[in-house]
Design brief:
The complex is a heterodimer of chains A (368) and B (297). Chain A has 368 residues and is of the alpha+beta class. Chain A has 10 helices and 19 strands. Chain A folds into 2 domains: 237 residues, P-loop containing nucleotide triphosphate hydrolases (Rossmann fold, 3-Layer(aba) Sandwich); 104 residues, Nucleic acid-binding proteins (OB fold (Dihydrolipoamide Acetyltransferase, E2P)). At the A-B interface, β6 and α4 of A face α8 and α9 of B.
């Protein structure tokens, strides 16, 4: 990093503040709760990704943090300040929208400078700040253009510039990459990670894309029907999913889940095949990731239905006692369709979930 | 602005066939009468028919030398500028208000469109009653300050009354256009401006108004051209051009000259002049305003 970059960084680096959600709830009609009372603490300077399927309440949650939606109950604090009753502008947070929401009648410069202008910052200061941000985002040559003359990636950068120019303590992203093509999305992911390192604002990033969540997040908050399923680091969420929902949401392809019955010694499928040793009784759901299954010699029998060769590895779709089992394997190349597979489920890679609630049962296999 | 899309037809005569009914209507009821007016403006017509004499530009020389023509023309321009501006401004304020997510804004949107169903002449009759100096809404004013509101005697009062009726009749259409423009703005645009710290008032002037300029321009152009002619029904029912000719707009003067005074050539000539004026005016609007409001969404 050269001298100029360092100066820009110190100019733009914000005083990040922690976000504390205390029993925050949202209901539009007073009876059905979109978000039941929810507690979470987003640490200062942390990059939190809110992940969930459409309709899980993640956008509503973000809008409540931004101040664009009122909370129906509970409090939101930025640092020591309670903000749930404040207007968006009083909260000191900025937001990047999914469709960018750039002002089409303003130039790139005016778009980025608008919040400073509204705040009454003198013009020379404004110019200085906008130019610093534009340099950082590689927009210096585009300041005179209108948004309509920019590409998707450039618009995205302008939207980010508009958000960070005010040096917000809290930076919100509402599915900002979903309108970009795959290559650009990948590039922007790297840029966003780099940007976060440089400006250090507490960042909340809403997405339904688990790859974005895994790559960008310090911690991932997984939301399901307005409730927090799990709030942990990407690594912990991958290795120790707290529920079937999380297990199926993270990973591509997702974790295999098969219903099993325990007789106190082993876990069996409905057709009687033994999958693992575990001293439990009753019905459970057994999970194993496609990449954790070993193909070749093994006690578990399954028949191959379909295969996809992806070059670096192959994805096999197999039938395990009537259940679909996906296997990611580098050794798949010489297996024909309809072949019988012999598999090994390494015990330490198995996950046991309650059949009713879907919650993980920790330590089920660690004692072996 | 988006690029024009080209429709594809299997049969090359189908589009012609489809457009014929409308083209016929426009030709018969618009271009033919206009052509007739221009044609007659070069002839001296007998008031009760039977032959006409080609006189060249003599009709124009006569009309342009007539101070009453210039008076009426001046009134028309004043009516056009004040009436049209208000007829866009008032619906604009109403549309901005109705666009906000306030209680009762939905019924308000309905109510504001209803006047569209009232004919111009009816509006004239109703407003003549509303502004009647003895029984109308302003009549209490005359009790406190006798004679302050007298549209039957005072030319200015009559003109105000005329403009009020015109603005009222223009509300529904302009309101619908402007509200549609406001509603087409994405919600995130408001949210982005709110996040940038702009309050509701600031958002109106910085974001909403600039972005509905195409709609404002459309309503202004239509209003300017319409106000020249549509005022006829109002003048005819409310003031008959009085008092003392103070509301005698060009379009009404043409009618009186032609059908009461039987100066058919003079009326045709004034019609031709009015037509050229409106065309030039619209062209000027597009040249000066139209170019500045293009932007890509």
């Amino acid at each position: 990093m050269n001298a100029i970059d360092t100066r820009i960084d110190t100019a733009i680096r914000a005083a990040a503040s922690a976000i504390v959600l205390d029993k925050v709830s949202k209901s539009y009609d007073g009876t059905t709760q979109v978000i039941p009372p929810l507690d979470a603490e987003l640490r200062a300077g942390e990059f939190t990704v809110v992940l969930g399927p459409s309709g899980c309440g993640k956008s509503t949650l973000m809008q409540m943090i931004a101040g664009l939606e009122r909370v129906s109950g509970g409090t939101i604090s930025f640092g020591a300040r309670q903000v749930q009753d404040l207007e968006p502008k009083a909260r000191g947070c900025a937001m990047v929208f999914q469709n960018y929401a750039l002002y089409p009648h303003m130039s790139v410069f005016e778009n980025i400078a608008y919040s400073l202008k509204v705040a009454g910052m003198p013009k020379p200061l404004r110019v200085e700040r906008v130019e610093a941000v534009a340099k950082m985002l590689g927009l210096s040559d585009l300041l005179a253009r209108k948004p309509g003359q920019l590409s998707g990636g450039q618009r995205q950068r302008v939207a980010i510039g508009r958000a960070i120019v005010r040096e917000p303590g809290v930076l919100l992203f509402d599915e900002p990459l979903s309108n970009l093509d795959a290559q650009l999305r990948h590039d922007m992911r790297m840029e966003l990670a780099e940007l976060h390192r440089r400006i250090g604002a507490t960042t909340v990033f809403v997405t339904h894309d688990q790859v974005e969540a895994m790559t960008l997040a310090d911690r991932i908050l997984i939301l399901n029907k307005g409730r927090i399923e799990q709030f942990d680091t990407p690594k912990a969420i991958y290795h120790h999913p707290a529920s079937v929902f999380v297990a199926k949401f993270i990973g591509a392809p997702p974790m295999n889940i098969v219903p099993v019955t325990g007789d106190g010694k082993v876990l069996r499928l409905a057709d009687g095949q033994v999958l693992a040793e575990c001293p439990v009784f009753g019905d459970y759901q057994l999970g194993i990731r496609p990449e954790d299954i070993l193909v070749g010699e093994g006690p578990i029998k399954a028949s191959l239905r379909y295969r996809e060769d992806l070059g670096s590895h192959a994805i096999l779709a197999a039938d395990l006692g009537g259940n679909l089992l996906r296997i990611a394997t580098p050794f798949g190349a010489d297996i024909g369709v309809e072949a019988n597979l012999s598999l090994t489920f390494p015990p330490l890679r198995l996950h046991l979930f309650d059949a009713e609630t879907g919650r993980a049962i920790p330590g089920a296999f660690s004692a072996q | 602005m988006s690029s024009p899309t080209q429709a594809l037809f299997a049969n090359r005569w189908l589009p012609v066939l489809l457009v014929t009914p409308l083209a016929l209507l426009i030709v018969i009821f618009f271009y033919v009468p206009i052509f007739q007016a221009f044609y007659w403006s070069f002839f001296l017509e007998r008031p009760f028919g039977g032959g006409s004499i080609f006189v060249g530009w003599a009709n124009f020389a006569r009309v342009l030398a007539d101070p009453q023509f210039w008076e009426a023309g001046k009134r028309t321009v004043i009516f056009m500028v004040i009436g049209s501006s208000l007829a866009v401004l008032v619906p604009l304020i109403l549309a901005v208000a109705a666009d906000r997510q306030l209680r009762l804004s939905q019924p308000a949107r309905n109510v504001l469109v209803w006047p569209k169903g009232v004919a111009g002449a009816s509006i004239g009759v109703i407003f003549a009653f509303i502004f009647n100096p003895f029984v109308g809404i302003l009549s209490p004013l005359n009790q406190w300050f006798p004679g302050i509101w007298a549209p039957g005697i005072d030319g200015t009062d009559a003109f105000i009354m005329l403009i009020a009726a015109h603005v009222w009749s223009g509300i529904p259409f302009n309101f619908v256009i402007l509200l549609a423009g406001l509603q087409s703005l994405p919600r995130t645009m408001h949210q982005a401006a709110a996040m940038d710290g702009a309050g509701a008032w600031r958002r109106i002037f910085d974001v909403q108004l600039p972005l509905i300029m195409p709609q404002v321009f459309l309503t202004l152009v239509l209003e300017f051209t319409e106000s020249v002619t549509s005022a006829f029904a109002l003048v005819d029912t409310m003031t008959k051009g009085g008092p003392g000719g103070s509301t005698n707009l060009l379009v009404y003067k043409i009618y009186v000259d032609g059908f009461n005074g039987y100066d058919l050539s003079g009326a045709a000539t004034q019609t031709a002049i009015l037509m050229v004026f409106v065309v030039l005016l619209t062209g000027a609007q597009f040249a000066f305003l139209g170019r500045r409001i293009n932007y890509e969404r």
